[in-house]
Amino acid sequence: MRYGPAVRRRKLGAELRALRTHAGLTSGQAADRVGWHQSKVSRIETGRSSVKAADVRLLLEAYEVEDPQLRQLLVALAGSDDDGGRRHWWHAYRELLPPAYRDFISLESQACRMRTLETTVVPGLLQTPDYARAVTRAALDGLPDEQVDALVEVRLARQDVLRAAPPLRLSVILDEAVLHRPVGGSQVLAGQLKRLLEAAQLPHVRLQVLPFAAGEHVGLIGSFVIFSFPNIADLDVVVLDHLTSSLYLERREDLKAYTDAFNSLQGKALSPEESTDHIAGIGDGA
After folding, report:
1. Which residues of 102-128 are buried (b: 16+ CB within 10 A; e: fewer)?
2. Which of 22, 23, 167, 241 could hold 63 in an S-S bridge, CB 3.0 to 4.6 Å?
3. Could you tell me which residue ranges the HTH cro/C1-type domain spans (predicted)?
4. DSSP secondary structure string for all residues of 242-269
5. What are phi and psi of 117, to 5 degrees?
6. Are 163 and 127 in contact (CB under 8 A)?
């Protein structure tokens, strides 16, 4: 298990090494092309050293990589500068957000697909402002109002990935308990249930409810997220949230285990159509 930045460095290095090999270059030849010492190329490829976005661009030019999606993804994995040299939007909140959360947002913003099991609260990408505020207050008791407001702004800004072109493909399995937990009170919950029904109508959102009747299941171990990225399947990452940090799993056996678990839970959950009916029924009775 590694923290997000280490995962990204290792995966970025492995991909750059593969591109160098495909270009028919040794690490020494690659270093000569960009004016570096060979040891710098080796450190980048093994993930022992961080790398700037500008350095990645130099290597991609040296390896004659022209695929714009691949270039954009690898540059984004390198750090916080995009192709225009602008900071990503969440850097305005850098002093407020812990590193693990910033890294999660970075992965989320670059992913093409996100699969998540949620057993306690509605996932952040589908939360209403009032629900997000209640969750933030509960998780960070005693935080000043202005900081709570800023964290809610961050959570709502994250939801832009669902409105992007192309949008993030989101598959959510919600434990039924989430739909009954009155986070923020009954009125806030009612508004949140309505928001879930609206989101479920989006063509790129698949929402399923895991009913109490499903009994015991692998999801009892807790919530998790699986990120997938365009062009490079090996960049898939599993994220496990803890109270004070997030852990990132990258090994093939871990990815397979959580992918198999998600697929199993989809089979136990209600269909998307049954799920919306179930959510609507809970909302009507609220």
Report:
1. bbbbbbbbbbbebbbbbbebbbbbbbb
2. 23
3. 16-70
4. -SS-EEEE--HHHHHHHHHHHHHHHHHS
5. -105, 125
6. no
